[in-house]
Write a sequence for this structure.
């Protein structure tokens, strides 16, 4: 069933180029989001969001990349149908969950919870990244959906943690009478 969904995706040279470029921008281990988090931490106004994105990044790395991928060990679609022409080198890692989707939605959730308008643009970007994993025949739909859920949950938790960290670093000022 899931393979038939992947086979039904219309592929064109223009879309090949678009999704390949998008994938390269994000990086093989979602480095874009780590860099974004570090950059946002530099500025006081965006520090809380930067911290949340970094917490999310390492949460996805721990729970998605290091734990679930090894625990589930689901083969990728491109490991099942090796005749399918890929746009990238055949990955050696397993499929479940899509950590690219998790990193994208985790960062988008963190941004959205702090900056609604910019966050909406990040959510669109996250949708494109998640779809790219299907388009490029690297993940099954359930891998991507699980990655989205993992990312959103980690994004929400990370914002709560970063809020507490920022509040601890900036205790409320009291005035003495």
């Amino acid at each position: 069933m899931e393979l038939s969904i992947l086979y039904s995706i219309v592929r064109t040279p223009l879309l090949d180029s678009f999704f390949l470029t998008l994938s390269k921008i994000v990086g093989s281990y979602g480095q874009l989001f780590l860099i974004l988090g570090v950059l946002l931490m530099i500025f006081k106004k965006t520090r809380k969001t930067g911290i949340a994105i970094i917490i999310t990044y390492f949460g996805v790395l721990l729970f998605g990349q290091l734990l679930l991928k090894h625990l589930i060990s689901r083969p990728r679609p491109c490991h099942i149908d090796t005749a399918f022409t890929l746009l990238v080198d055949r990955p050696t890692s397993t499929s479940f969950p899509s950590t690219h989707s998790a990193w994208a939605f985790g960062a988008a959730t963190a941004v959205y919870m702090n900056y609604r308008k910019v966050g909406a643009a990040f959510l669109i970007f996250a949708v494109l990244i998640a779809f790219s994993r299907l388009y490029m025949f690297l993940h099954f739909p359930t891998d991507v959906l699980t990655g989205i859920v993992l990312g959103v949950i980690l994004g929400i938790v990370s914002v709560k943690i970063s809020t507490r960290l920022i509040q601890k670093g900036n205790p409320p000022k009291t005035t003495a009478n």
Q: What stands out?
A: The CA atoms of residues 70 and 94 lie 7 Å apart. The two ends are 71 Å apart (CA to CA). The domain at 36-169 is CATH 1.20.144.10 (Vanadium-containing Chloroperoxidase; domain 1). The chain has a mean pLDDT of 93.
